[in-house]
Every structure is written in structure tokens, then in C-alpha cells.
């Protein structure tokens, strides 16, 4: 499984690097202006569905059902029929939804950003961008299905690389379309659609390579489709509740001063780097692995061991990442974004939002690791109920904190609610006998904390040594000093991994072959 994790992580890293380049371009072209706020609100609509489909509901429902069919050779025809039926239902449903949303887009924007009502220009722009962007949802759905198919066969590369094509489309649109449209945000809106076309094209090629060619059919409901929807709808609600955290933040931030939405967006983008590279990668690889083992009635100790090693690896990555982002938030934001329309005041608020988001980073990743333990057992309801409860916690804490801390209160509330989510997921899995911590993870957790503490001291020392240079000297030197700080921290933490024997060379080699 860990070989699959590293495959997903590698291609996701490429995508995230392109995403950073994309965000640097966006920050330079748009900054934290009203046009930027309008675009980010509009883009949250399809992005919201992308996260629900690609990282949650669809794969959680599709993979367990499809996995059960493909592992029974006599049901190969049923497997292909299942693909055709689900694809056809998706296409017909989303085309209808897209038509409806085109006409009710003003009401949608009103719900997402009620604070825009008093600003007619921003509101109208958000509606206009929303209408251009929304059809991207169809491409999101098809990519989610095709990726789920390839993931079932343990072929993760194409699905992991697909988001990179959207980032390339964004960058290309800003550079080449901006001179021909009203604002750079218009160029970005068209870039979303171009990226969607490229993603679907690549994923169709991926499933074609494994000799699967889905066709559009008149949908009919059979037992497999019923089973799919029984898993899908709770998964949609669960995934929707997770994304509701973001939407709630957007709604509340729309009442705050101009730029608040953009500050949260840029901070969230940085947080998404370790989450996307490792957290989502673990979830993607873990779901088909657990589904297969459970279908085969594997020994519970083997299943729990895989879960424990996944949690172990998640902590190994997320704890030092959270420390680094918390301490180095200001120089990171300064170097990546502070140019053009993105000014020092934007760096101040964005960096502090990043520090608070970072407090929840281990929780964000652990959620991705724990949820497949439910999904693989065809239980999508429990994560939904837990997530819904945590959304309520997030709303309450956000409303309490925003009066004193502006958008920073929203970031802190998101982190706190995510830790509640992790705690509840683990308690329920433990009570059901589906998870327990073995001796190895208990010992390694202590070692990870010790290693992270030593790294923390090193990062603080280097920050105090380099901080003035990072924020006031020339751009090239600033990048160099930040890279030295980050690489030194990684080396120190890496040395501690081997000194404390969290992992040995033999274990790494063994895991890379799995």
C-alpha cells in the first residue's frame, strides 16, 4: 500500500508545486481586491463539489461496490454495466443541475456571501463568474468516476496528476487570455473549463489503457445501483458537511473587511500542500486496500496493522509540518505572495491565518486516514453524523471569535472542530473493535514527539537568525534563507527518525515494495 501512497504523493507534489505557481500568479494579478473576492466565492461552488466527489462521497460509494464486482470474475459484465449506469446517471443529473444553477446563481451567491449584498459590483461579478465556472462540475464528476476505476486496480498516477492540468490551465489563462478579457478573473473563469476538458481527456485515456470504455446508456436502477446510492447519499452529506466548514467560513468572512476571504483562501492553499501530498494520498490508497481485505475476510490484526501504520505515517508527516508552518508562516507568505496587488497588510493577516490553520493540520490528515475504515465497511453514515456535529462546533466557535480576531477566528475554529472530528472517529472505531493501537505505534508516537520538539528548537533558532533577512532583503536571498531553514529542519527530523529507529532502512525498502 505504501508504494501506492508514494506514487500518489509524488504526482500530487507536482500538482501542488504548480498550484503554488498558480497562486503566485493569481496573487500578483488579483491580490486581495473585490474582483479576487468575487472570483474566489464563485470558484468555491465547483471546488466544493470537487472535494465532495473526488475526495469523499463518490469514491467511498463506488470503490467498495465496484471492488466487490471485479474480484468476482463471473461478474465482469455487471462491473461494466455498473460503470455505464453510474456515468450516465452522473451526466444526466449534472446537466439538469447546471441548467438550474445558471438561473438561480444570484441566490446561490447570496447564500455563500451575503456580505456582498451591499456591494453591487462584487456581487454581480461573483454571479457572472459562477455562471461561467459551474459547468466544470460535470468534468469533476467524470474525473472522480474514472479515478475511482483506476484506483480500484491500484493505478493511481493519472488520478493524482489530474489536478495539475487545472493548475496549468489557470496559469496559461492568466498569461494568454488576460489581454483579451475584462479582468484577469474572467481569464481564470474560462481557464477552469479548459482545465476540466483536459482532465477528462487524460482520465478517459487512463481507463482506456486498462481496456474499459464506458458508454452512455439510458439509466436503470438495479441492485448494484441501489447499493451505490445507499452509500453515496450519506457520503455526499458527510463530504458536504466537511466542505460546509469552508462555506461557513466564507459566509462569515463576507461580512468582514475586503480581503478577508482572500486571506483565508491563500492560507488554506498553503495548508493544502502537506494535506494533499500525504493526507489525501493515504486516504486514496487506503480505501481500495481495506475494501479488498474486508471483502476477502482478512484477519482483523492485519487490517488494524495497516491502519496503525497509516496513522503512524500521518503523524510522522503532519506534526513536523504543522510546526514548520506555524513558526515560518510569515516568511512563507511574504516570499510566495507579497508582490503586485498583494501588500504587507495582506501578508500580516494571511500568515496569522496560516499559523492557526496549521494547528489543525495533523487532524485534517488523520480524518483522511480514519474515514476509509468506515467507508471500506460500507458505512458512510457515521462519518456524516460526526462531521455534521463538528460543523456546528465550527460555526459556534467562529461566531464567538470573529468579533475579536476577524478571519483569524475562522481559521482557529476550523482547527478546533477538526480535532473534535478525529477524536469522535477514533472513539467509535475503537468501541466497534475495528481499531486499537498496537505497541509499535505507541512507542513511535513518543519518538515522533521527541523528534518534532528537537526540530522545533532548530526552526526557532534559524528563524531568529534569518527573520530580518527573510522579510527585508532581496527576493533571491529571501528564498535561499527560507529554503536553508526548511531543508535544515527536514534533515534534522530525518536524522532523528533513524537515530530513534522510528523507521529503519530495511523497513523503508520493505514498505516501498508493498
Explain this structure.
The chain has 514 residues and is mostly helical. The protein folds into two domains: 2-437, no CATH class; 438-514, no CATH class. It is 84% helix and 0% strand. The protein is built from 18 helices and no strands. It has helices spanning 2-30, 34-54, 57-70, 76-112, 120-133, 136-152, 157-176, 184-209, 223-253, 260-295, 300-337, 344-359, 361-375, 381-405, 407-431, 439-472, 475-499, 505-513. Helix 3 (57-70) runs parallel beside helix 10 (260-295). The longest helix has 38 residues, at 300-337. The radius of gyration is 22 Å and the shape is globular. The relative contact order is 0.12. The model has no long low-confidence stretch (mean pLDDT 84).
Question: Would you summarize the structure shown here?
Answer:
This protein is mostly helical.
Give structural attributes.
about 0% strand; about 525 residues; 18 helices; single chain
Strand-and-helix sequence, N→C? Answer: HHHHHHHHHHHHHHHHHH
> What is the domain total for the residues?
2
Indicate the overall shape.
globular
Uncertain residue segments: none
Count every helix, treating DSSP H or I runs of 4 or more residues as helices: 18
Number of strands: 0
Distance between the termini: 5 Å
Average of per-residue pLDDT values:
84
**Structural Rg:** 22 Å
Indicate the proportion of strand residues.
Answer: under 5%
Amino acid at each position: 500500500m505504501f508504494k501506492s501512497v508514494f506514487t500518489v504523493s509524488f504526482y500530487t507534489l507536482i500538482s501542488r508545486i504548480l498550484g503554488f505557481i498558480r497562486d503566485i500568479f493569481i496573487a500578483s494579478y488579483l491580490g486581495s481586491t473585490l474582483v479576487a473576492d468575487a472570483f474566489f466565492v464563485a470558484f468555491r461552488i465547483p471546488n466544493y463539489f470537487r472535494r465532495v466527489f473526488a475526495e469523499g462521497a463518490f469514491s467511498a460509494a463506488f470503490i467498495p461496490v465496484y471492488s466487490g464486482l471485479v474480484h468476482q470474475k463471473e461478474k465482469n459484465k455487471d462491473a461494466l454495466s455498473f460503470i455505464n449506469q453510474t456515468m450516465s446517471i452522473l451526466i444526466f443529473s449534472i446537466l439538469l443541475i447546471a441548467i438550474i444553477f445558471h438561473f438561480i446563481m444570484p441566490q446561490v451567491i447570496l447564500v455563500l456571501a451575503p456580505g456582498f449584498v451591499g456591494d453591487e459590483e462584487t456581487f454581480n461579478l461573483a454571479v457572472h463568474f459562477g455562471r461561467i465556472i459551474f459547468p466544470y462540475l460535470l468534468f469533476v464528476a467524470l474525473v472522480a468516476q474514472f479515478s475511482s476505476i483506476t484506483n480500484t486496480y491500484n493505478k493511481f498516477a493519472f488520478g493524482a496528476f489530474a489536478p495539475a492540468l487545472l493548475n496549468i490551465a489557470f496559469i496559461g489563462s492568466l498569461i494568454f487570455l488576460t489581454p483579451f478579457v475584462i479582468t484577469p478573473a474572467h481569464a481564470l473563469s474560462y481557464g477552469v473549463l479548459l482545465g476540466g476538458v483536459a482532465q477528462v481527456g487524460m482520465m478517459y485515456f487512463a481507463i482506456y489503457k486498462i481496456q474499459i470504455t464506458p458508454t452512455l446508456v439510458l439509466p436503470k436502477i438495479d441492485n448494484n445501483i441501489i447499493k451505490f446510492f445507499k452509500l453515496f447519499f450519506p457520503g455526499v452529506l458527510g463530504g458536504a458537511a466537511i466542505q460546509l466548514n469552508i462555506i461557513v467560513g466564507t459566509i462569515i468572512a463576507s461580512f468582514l473587511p475586503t480581503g478577508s476571504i482572500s486571506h483565508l483562501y491563500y492560507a488554506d492553499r498553503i495548508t493544502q500542500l502537506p494535506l494533499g501530498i500525504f493526507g489525501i494520498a493515504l486516504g486514496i490508497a487506503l480505501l481500495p486496500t481495506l475494501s479488498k481485505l474486508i471483502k476477502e475476510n482478512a484477519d482483523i490484526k492485519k487490517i488494524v496493522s495497516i491502519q496503525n501504520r497509516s496513522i503512524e505515517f500521518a503523524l510522522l508527516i503532519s506534526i513536523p509540518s504543522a510546526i514548520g508552518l506555524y513558526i515560518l508562516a510569515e516568511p512563507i507568505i511574504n516570499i510566495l505572495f507579497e508582490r503586485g496587488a498583494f501588500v504587507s497588510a495582506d501578508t500580516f493577516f494571511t500568515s496569522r491565518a496560516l499559523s492557526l490553520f496549521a494547528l489543525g493540520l495533523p487532524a485534517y490528515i488523520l480524518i483522511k486516514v480514519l474515514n476509509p475504515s468506515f467507508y471500506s465497511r460500507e458505512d458512510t453514515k457515521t462519518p456524516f453524523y460526526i462531521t455534521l456535529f463538528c460543523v456546528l462546533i465550527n460555526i459556534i466557535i467562529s461566531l464567538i471569535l470573529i468579533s475579536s480576531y476577524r478571519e483569524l477566528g475562522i481559521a482557529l475554529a476550523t482547527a478546533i472542530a477538526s480535532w473534535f472530528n478525529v477524536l469522535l472517529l477514533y472513539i467509535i472505531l475503537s468501541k466497534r473493535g475495528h481499531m486499537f493501537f498496537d505497541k509499535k505505534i505507541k512507542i513511535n508516537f513518543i519518538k515522533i514527539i521527541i523528534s518534532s520538539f528537537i526540530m522545533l528548537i532548530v526552526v526557532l533558532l534559524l528563524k531568529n537568525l534569518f527573520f530580518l533577512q527573510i522579510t527585508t532583503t532581496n527576493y533571491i536571498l529571501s528564498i535561499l534563507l527560507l529554503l536553508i531553514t526548511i531543508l535544515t529542519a527536514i534533515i534534522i527530523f530525518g536524522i532523528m527518525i533513524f537515530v530513534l529507529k522510528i523507521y529503519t532502512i530495511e523497513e523503508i525498502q520493505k514498505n516501498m515494495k508493498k
